[in-house]
Amino acid sequence: MRKKAGVPFYIFLSIFIFVTMFPFLWVFLTSIKPPIEIFSGFNWFTSNPTMDNYQSAVETRPLFRYIGNSLVVATLTTVLAISVASLAAYALTRLPIKFKGTILGIVLAAAMFPQVAIISPIFNLVQGLGLRNSYMGLVIPYITISLPLAIWILATFFQKIPFELEESAKLDGASPFQTFRKIIFPLAAPGVFTTAILVFIAAWNEYLFALVINPDDSWRTVPVGLSFYQSQFTIPWGDITAATVLVTIPIVIIVLIFQRRIVAGLTSGSVKE
Amino acid sequence: MGEKKSRFQLSEKQLGYLFVLPALVLITVITLWPVAQSFYNSLFDYRLNDPTRNQTTLNYQIDLERYADHYFFYGRDMEAAVEASVGTEFEQAITDIQASIQNYHEELTTGELQEQYEIVDEMVFNFEAVNDTDLKYAQLEDDVAEGYVSIFDEAQVVFSAFQESTEDEDVSEAISVASSTVDRLDRAIVRPNFIGLTNYGKYLTDARMWSAMGNTVFFTVVSVFFELVIGLAVALVLHRAFIGRGAVRAAVLIPWAIPTAVSAMMWSYLYDGQTGIVAHYFAQLGIISDPSVMLSTGSGAMASIILADVWKTMPYMALLLLAGLQTISDSLYEAAEVDGAGKIQQFFYITLPMLKSAILVALLFRTLDAFRVFDLIFVLTGGGPANRTESISVYAYKVLFGQQNFGEGSVLSVIVFVSVAIISIIFIKLIGSELFEGRTARK
After folding, report:
1. Positive or negative CA dihedral for B312, B318, B321, B326?
2. Exposure string (b/e) for A114-123, b if CB count within 10 Å is 16 or more?
3. What sequence ranges are listed for the domain ABC transmembrane type-1 (chain B) (predicted)?
4. Which residue of A220, B78, B204, B363 pairs with A224 in a disulfide if CB–CB is 3.0 to 4.6 A?
5. What is the average pLDDT across A33-55?
6. Which pLDDT tens digit goes with each residue over A130-161?
7. Distance CA B414, CA A202 (A)
8. Same domain membership, residue A127 and residue A187
């Protein structure tokens, strides 16, 4: 099957990449057009590129605040989920406990729960704790999305570490916790890192909880903030495209740097988002 | 030292349970418990925007904060009503009502609730908010509450009869003020709102629910089908050595990594009837009759959503299938070649069977994801036009947070949950235990 690729293959590949990237390309091209051109025609390139849309995008709405909110929430979620999940995944793959299948089943089931099925009790819980319009108010429900995902992916990575290493550490007198900290964790670091990226992206992308729990403009996250750019009378496509470009850049950088790891994580956990 | 060590030394097994515990507690508290709570809420007439129904309760309760606040004005307003009624046929009825309310009030505030009521009353008097629910709400005996509520009802009947009979504006004014304070007192009493399966009856016969369900199933089947077919084709093409793999991988991953809400905004620009380039080219190519049909007609909007979803998640499908393809040994194909099998035969007799479990796992997760679709539709079309693209999750959101109706909204949440559970069970039956393989075994 693994033949060298010919010319038709590269033509197909170029078309495929063009189609995939077209929305981004067009949004970028629009973002540097003067507003009058956006509404007057379908020229691909403008002859008067301008940064006005960018200026207006960050002035009409607190876009950088949204990005900051998303960064804080996604980072906190990642740290919490990874610390709890790595312990659980270690125990599930390495330690002689019972009911492993049941526990993994519960974890998997939790990953499948539709968010809309838990949103109203979570809303009451967060409201009762006085955590609406706060970072913790989002981090708590985000555990529901990220914990099952993290446990499953980490379990796959831990499984790949040879058991002999652990046995010899034990023979040398290391306690299980020392083994975990000094042998398993460093060896699993690439896997942990991969999982962290996926958890981060999942938290960065979440919409429903963010919409319901943090409705105050200064607490909105990027996806929610961006979806509220519509104004009452016209749709400011210039602002929206500029804002889209700005919030897309961090994700593009993450993907470009970590593409190998992301693919490894996606395929090992077989879980989306 | 030795003693200290043995005190901290847990057996591997105990340590194992200790390690899983935090994860299990978290999952229970924020996933399993809320689902159970949604089931429970769905059995009540529970509305956040109605003070008499803003919690689920099996008994009569009283909101002491509200009650104390309004009782403060009640004395004055009722006095005015009594004065206004002097010499009319209603005088007797109104003084009777005043006396009854007085009685019930006394019974309420001198019994076991006395202490609690005094604290709340004091706080209300000082304009402090009562945030402690245990302090704010108190349970009422059924007969006391029912009696009190029936006095309120009776008062309203008398007041409105009085209001109709009088032409004196001052009297009318006094009566309407008293009537509204009594109404406010009435609203401080939270009724038991358990209604069993009534909500389910309502939504299982609700045309809008079934059309939302139909939209969801249609969206799920069509977009997952296209994602699988196109994803498989892309995976087969990419499954060979070529220059620029990294670039392709990045191009494929970016749509997946962008927040769905952000890509929905992008597509809403591309589909816009006036400025949208996709709508423009589609119209020029004759695929659609007019650029505006993409978002303003039901079928156009559904097609738009499906196209945006396929664009966004097909890459993910392709990656999973590509990983599956890479596990198939080349020697199988070589052997097939020797036996004279053509490319198509190889695909159907080697590739597809070997990929079966990868395909099923990918299908399971994609189907579940597609079935609970929310942000794409919510941002791109809002469920419109005329609810033609409303998914069941979007409908649930609208009832829960648009109408603030947690009881009825929970019914829709439960329907989504049950559907997702059924889909999972079907797939897991098909996949069998392969999902768990290699994850639990201690080699």
Report:
1. negative
2. bbbbbbbbbb
3. 213-427
4. A220
5. 80
6. 899 999 999 999 988 899 989 988 888 888 88
7. 24
8. yes
- CA B207, distance to chain mean position in Å, is 19
pLDDT at A1: 44
Residue A271's pLDDT is what? 40
Q: Under an 8 A CB cutoff, do B420 and A87 touch?
A: no
- Residue A232 confidence class, pLDDT cut points 50, 70, 90: low
Q: Report helix, strand or coil for B137.
A: strand
Best B13, B31, B352 residue to mutate vs chain A (most A CBs within 10 Å): B31
* Residue type for position A190: P
**Which residues of chain B neighbour A118 with C-beta distances below 8 Å?**
30-31, 34-35, 38, 413
For A9, residues 6+ apart whose C-beta sits below 8 A from its C-beta are B237, B240, B242
How sure is the predictor about A4, in pLDDT bands with cuts at 50, 70 and 90? low
Q: Can you give the pLDDT at residue A233? A: 66
Are the C-beta atoms of residues A157 and A261 closer than 8 Å to each other? no
Give the Cα separation of B31 and A141 in Å (integer). 9
Q: What is the mean pLDDT of residues B316-344?
A: 83
- Cβ contacts of B358 within 8 Å, gap of 6 or more: A270, B320, B321, B323, B324, B327
Instruction: Tell me what ipTM this predicted complex has.
Output: 0.89
Report the residue of A79, A116, A247 to disrupt the B interface, i.e. the one with the largest count of B CBs within 10 Å.
Answer: A116
User: A263 and B24: CB-CB below 8 Å?
Assistant: no
Of A91, A97, A113, the CB nearest to B31: A113
DSSP state of B51: G
Nearest to A3 among B240, B243, B316 (CB): B240
**Residue B389's domain spans which residues?**
201-438
The string of DSSP codes covering B144-184 is: HHHHHHHHHHHHHHHHHHHHHH---HHHHHHHHHHHHHHHH
Residue B206 token pair: 């609700």
- In angstroms, the Cα distances linking B326 to B235, B323, B330, B351 are 10, 5, 9, 11
pTM of the full structure: 0.85
Round to whole Å and give the CA distance between B402 and B396. 9
Partner-chain contact A120 B266, CB within 8 Å: no
Answer with the one of B134, B158, B190 that is the final residue of a domain: B190
Which of B181, B189, B159 is closest to B55 using CA atoms?
Answer: B189
Task: Identify the CATH number of the domain in which residue B405 sits.
Answer: 1.10.3720.10
Q: Indicate the SS3 state at residue B63.
A: strand
Does residue B161 lie within any of the structural domains? yes
Task: Clarify whether residues B213 and B115 are in a common domain.
Answer: no
Structure tokens at A198: 């996926």
In which band, very low, low, confident or very high, does the pLDDT at A82 lie, cut at 50, 70 and 90? very high
Q: Residue type for B66, please?
A: R
Average the pLDDT over A52-69 and give the result: 89
Per-residue model confidence (pLDDT) at position B4: 42
Domain count within chain A: 2
CA atoms within 13 A on the CB side of B243: 5
Residue listed under structure tokens 């994609």:
B366
3-class SS of residue B190: strand
Name which residue leads in pLDDT, B24 or B86: B24
Is residue B2 very low, low, confident or very high in pLDDT (cuts 50, 70, 90)?
Answer: very low
User: Strand, helix or coil at B325?
Assistant: helix
Chain B residue with minimal CA distance to A174?
B9
d(CA B326, CA B324): 5
Q: What is the pLDDT of chain B when averaged over all its residues?
A: 84
In a domain, B34, yes or no: no
